[in-house]
Amino acid sequence: MRYTGPKVRLSRRAGVPLTRKAVRYFEERPYPPGEHGRKTNRRQTGDYGLRLMEKQKLRWYYDVSERQMRRYWDMALRGGGRSGAELVVLLESRLASLVLRAGLAPSIYAARQYVTHGHITVDGRKVDIPSYLVKPGQVVAVRQRSRGMQPFVAAAEGVHADDRTAAYLDVSHADLRFTLVGRPSREQIAVPVDEQLVVEFYSR
C-alpha cells in the first residue's frame, strides 16, 4: 500500500527531506516523529534496518507501493548493468516523476494527482497512469483545457521549477510541456538514496 498520511512525517522518519515542503519542517525537527523521536539514535540501527530504511526512502521519494517496487526491481534485474542504478532510472522515467522533475507540479503527490485526473498528455494523447514509463523523444504536456487552472498557471511561471533543469529534459514552462530527450543516467538523478543498500536489501 502507498502511504497516505502526513508527508513530512516520512521525511523525519527517513532522516532527510523528501520534498521541497519538508525542508523547512525538517530543519525545525530533524528527529523521527513520535513520543520518543528525540531519543532515537539512528546510528544504532543494524545492517538490516539501514537497508530497509534506504529502500523505504526510495519508495517514499517516488510515492510507489511495495508491490510496485518489487515489480521495478524485477525489471531492473532483467535490464542488465547495475541493478541499483537501473532501478532508480526506471523510477525516474515514470510519468509522475518526470512531471515533478520538469517543474509542472510542486510535489510527487501533486504530480500523481495531475496525471490520474487526466490533465497530462503524452504525444498529444491523455495518459492517466502515473506509472507510465516515458520513452526518449516523447513529448509530455498539460492538456489545453486544464491550462487555466491555478496550479498550472503557477507552473507556467516557473514557480515549481528547480534551479537547474535536468539534463535529460527539454522544458518549456511557458508552453507547459517538456520532452524526454534521452534516457536518464543514475549520475544525472538527484535522489538522496544509496541504491547499493537497496540492492543488498532485495538480494538478501
SSE inventory with pairings:
Blueprint: H1 7-14, H2 20-28, H3 47-62, H4 66-78, H5 83-92, H6 95-101, H7 108-116, E1 120-122, E2 125-126, E3 139-142, H8 150-156, E4 169-172, E5 177-180, H9 195-203
Antiparallel strand pairs: 1-2, 1-3, 3-5, 4-5
Helix pairs in contact: 1-2, 3-9, 4-5, 5-9, 6-7
Detailed description of the structure:
The model has no long low-confidence stretch (mean pLDDT 86). By secondary structure, this protein is an alpha+beta fold. It is 43% helix and 8% strand. It has a five-stranded antiparallel β-sheet. It is built from nine helices and five strands; from the N terminus they run αααααααβββαββα. It starts with 6 loop residues before the first helix and ends with a helix.
Entry keywords:
5-stranded antiparallel β-sheet, alpha+beta, about 45% helix, about 200 residues
Low-confidence stretches: none
The proportion of strand residues reads 5-15%
Query: So what's the overall shape?
Result: globular
Q: In sequence order, what are the helices and strands, one letter per element?
A: HHHHHHHEEEHEEH
Structural category: alpha+beta
Largest sheet: 5 strands, antiparallel
Q: What does the radius of gyration come to?
A: 17 Å
Q: What is the number of beta strands?
A: 5
Mean pLDDT: 86
What oligomeric state best describes the polypeptide chains here?
single chain
Number of helices: 9
Helix content: 40-55%
Alpha carbon gap, first and last residue: 22 Å
Widest sheet: strand ordering: 2-1-3-5-4
